[in-house]
Amino acid sequence: MKAAVLKSPKNLELMDLPDPRCPPGGALIRVEACAVCGTDIKMLDQGHRDLQYPRILGHEVVGRIEEIDRKAQAGGHRIRAGDLVQIWPGIACGRCPACLREADNRCRDMKIIGFNCDGGFAEYLALPAQSLSESFGICRALNPLPESVDPALFTLTEPLACCINGQEQARVREGDSVLIWGGGPIGALHALLAELNGAGKILLAERLPGRIEEIRRHTCAQVIDLSSNNRDENGRDLLREAERAILSETDGQGVDLILTATPEVRISLRQMGLLAPGGRICIFSGPRPGEYEETINLRSMHYLEQTITGSYGCSSRHNRMAARLLESKQVEGDWIISKRVDLDRIGEAFEHSSRRAGLKSVVCAV
Q: What's the DSSP call for residue 37?
């Protein structure tokens, strides 16, 4: 099979490899579509703490079941060979306290497709038995899809599921005013989801004109245009122009919720100053190196009842919820996919995403 193999940082090579075998109790997937995530770009540029080389990247995967082991079939699975499925990339133990309370993204033995084992930038993907294990009578990792759907669209399931997790952690409520930092694929999905969750006002801060245009066209978010923002010597201070606009739009009260959809914004005292009483900040995008430790005003948190929460990845439950939202068209995200290529042109997909030329690039089967 063809596969894009990351041998080391900045060394991604398209190779011919032996076809993987169907694992005992698992399934062999013929990949139909796999999207490029910002984490994939990071792994190509500089590596990742969870990455083991050589590695086939890709964790936002839709495929067709080529083969399913007899042991899995004997377990009563409703999933059969030939089915089109979206794949939750987590490989969880299914037994620890986190797994048993449907928070399997916090599994003590978690492994992730495209990080600790090979992912979807290949013609075939082997899923271990753990991926087919059931929780509460539901297959943990495989979401069957109708034959009529666009496989590329459902690569948005996993990033949308991550947004569901973040907005659950931050408790998005009806009527909330929400500020989203960043208008990339995650910021766009956050805006669509916040609207679905009943947010009263959605503000989104972005500096790339192309993304600003797309967000304005396809969401109800009010965009704070940072394209002409004066930036500090580090090139990272996005607050200067935005603070006035945010406070003006909320009559000086601040917003109920801040979601970071870009690592370019750091959580700081200035961010806390944009929160209304009872406001929440969700640290969604991972902080940059050197920005892991920040000074926080505990007095403000106490008297104004403010909250800072973290969010990382998504559980299989979030993943199922996201697939249903896309299938029912409660979230319409086809406009987020701005480039499609086949596996032979995967370099173009990475380049498109790395330059932030559009929003989302997807590698599709021929």
A: P
Banded pLDDT at 237 (limits 50, 70, 90): low
Rounded to the nearest integer, the mean pLDDT of the chain is 91
Please give the structure tokens belonging to residue 336.
């987020």
Q: Is 2:344 a contact under the CB 8 Å cutoff?
A: yes
Residues in the chain, how many? Answer: 366
For the stretch 290-339, pLDDT in tens is 677 777 888 888 999 999 999 999 999 999 999 999 999 999 999 999 99
Tell me 26's DSSP state. Answer: -
Full set of structural domains in the chain with CATH: 2-160+314-364 (3.90.180.10), 171-310 (3.40.50.720)
| DSSP calls for 263-282 | TTS---HHHHTTEEEEEEEE
User: What does the DSSP assignment read for 329-340?
Assistant: TSS--GGGEEEE
Given the DSSP bridges, would you call strands 60-68 and 55-56 parallel, antiparallel or unpaired?
unpaired
The least confident of 67-81, 262-276, 316-330 is 67-81
Question: What CA–CA distance (Å, rounded) separates 195 from 201?
Answer: 8
Q: Rounded distance, CA 185 to CA 159, Å?
A: 8
C-alpha span between 231 and 241 (Å, rounded)? 10
Concatenate the DSSP letters of all residues of 317-331 into one string: HHHHHHHHHHHTTSS
Using CB atoms within 10 Å of the CB of residue 345, give its burial: 0 to 12 exposed, 13 to 18 middle, 19+ buried: middle
Predicted TM-score (pTM) of this structure: 0.94
Q: Where are the beta strands (DSSP E) in 73-133?
A: 84-87, 90-91, 111-112, 124-127
Token pair for 279: 């406001």
What are the strands, taking DSSP E only, across the chain?
2-8, 11-16, 27-35, 55-56, 60-68, 84-87, 90-91, 111-112, 124-127, 134-135, 138-139, 142-144, 177-181, 201-206, 222-225, 255-260, 275-283, 307-310, 337-341, 360-364
Q: Give the gyration radius of the chain's Cα atoms.
A: 21
Q: Residue 133 has what DSSP assignment?
A: -
